[in-house]
Amino acid sequence: MAKLELRNLNKTYAPKVVPVKDVSLTVDDGEFLTLLGPSGCGKSTVLRMIAGLDAPTRGRIFLGGEDITSKRPGDRNMAMVFQSYALYPHMTVSENLASGLKLKKVSRADIEQRVAEVSRLLGLDELMNRKPGQLSGGQRQRVAVGRALVRQAQVFLLDEPLSNLDALLRERVRADLKRIFAAQKAPVVYVTHDQTEAMTLSSKVALLNDGYLQQLDSPDRIYNHPANRFVAGFVGSPQMNLLTLPCKGRSAMLGDFQIPLPDLPTVPPEIILGIRPENVGIARPGDTSFVRGRVNVVENLGMNYLVSTRVESHSAPTQIVRALLPTDRRWNEEEEIALTLPPQHLHWFDVQSGDALIGRQMAGVYS
Ligand SMILES: Nc1ncnc2c1ncn2[C@@H]1O[C@H](COP(=O)(O)OP(=O)(O)OP(=O)(O)O)[C@@H](O)[C@H]1O
Q1: C-alpha span between 341 and 284 (Å, rounded)
Q2: Which of 23, 43, 192 to mutate to test the pocket of ligand 1 (most atoms within 8 A of CB)?
Q3: 13 alpha carbon to ligand 1 midpoint, in Å?
Q4: Per the database record, which ranges form the ABC transporter domain (predicted)?
Q5: pTM across the whole model
Q6: Fold for the domain defined by 240-359
Q7: In the chain, where the domains are located
């Protein structure tokens, strides 16, 4: 088992196509790292460089302290699971599982033992004599994972393995993957653009945008302490409210409501205030600190209403604040509403750079 380390990894395809820019990170034994980000941000390119399918333009890759940057894919002892399953259609499940080991000239007894172990672990025993064409999508995906597990690789790489499954099946297989990889000792690198997968599966998330690593942190810290405006807006559904507000004295102005600013060396003319819809509350009788607005739109999400509120004033542009509210009270459009913004749930970002202004731990960003 071995630690995987990427140092200042860059990939340039053409002068203007630079999908990966200076990415550094480590994945320890037993760690499950997710590369998360929007389409085209460079996730698959990072994974392909780890696998050896693409060469970095600059930077190095280490496995267990050994520089493997120039090693051929076949010599890296990594197992990869693709979105497309990549199973042999003419072979049975059992033969598919065993095929990689046969090529490596593993003894017949060892192959039988490992295939039986993985089959038991993944619940494939009933399916061993079927061919991929006779399996459902979820079953095929389990076989694809089985092919990787059977190899006892030093690193597991998974590229959007659930994206071909429907929503219900995705949830089930996601739980299976969590259980299976929790039992593995090797580092796992998992690519997805689905934040729920990243948050539920990972011990560590690397959030990429435009080829740059935005934050490398635990799912909890990514959610509760986003390093910048991009991370804050990308993670969380419904999305965090991100309001650009004018500053006056030591306050940000939301309509006529004054929100005390954090302790900053200088007060900027404008600042971005972030608050998640689930943290916006309804003022109770006796509350003195609230912002008044009018209900703009009400969306029924089943468990909650997502209520968009218009906050207007003579001196500042109109803002929309979205709140996730219980369904025990109905809200009508244009009704007056008083919202609370608890100070402990406020995030502040610089308008120019987008960086978080407080609570950011730079040391954790490139750990
Ligand atoms: N072989 C290539 N030649 C030129 N450009 C490429 C090549 N492979 C990828 N790219 C470009 O690099 C960028 C990153 O691609 P990559 O596949 O890594 O993104 P991704 O984050 O995995 O996206 P998705 O979620 O859509 O798969 C994209 O703009 C893509 O068009």
Answers
A1: 13
A2: 43
A3: 10
A4: 4-235
A5: 0.88
A6: OB fold (Dihydrolipoamide Acetyltransferase, E2P) (2.40.50)
A7: 4-233, 240-359
CA 35 to ligand 1 center in whole angstroms:
14
Q: Is the CB of 192 under 6 A from ligand 1?
A: no
Cβ-based neighbour number of residue 18 at 10 Å: 17
Query: How does DSSP assign 84-100, residue by residue?
Result: T----TTS-HHHHHHHH
Instruction: For the beta carbon of residue 39, count every other beta carbon within 10 angstroms.
Output: 7
Q: Are the C-beta atoms of residues 165 and 144 closer than 8 Å to each other?
A: no
pLDDT tens for residues 291-346? 999 999 999 999 999 999 999 988 788 999 999 999 999 999 999 999 999 999 99
pLDDT tens digits along 37-48: 999 999 999 999
Domain 4-233: which CATH class? alpha beta
The amino acid sitting at 215 is: Q
Q: From ligand 1's centre to the CA of 83, what distance in Å?
A: 15
Question: Is the CB of 15 within 6 Å of ligand 1?
Answer: no
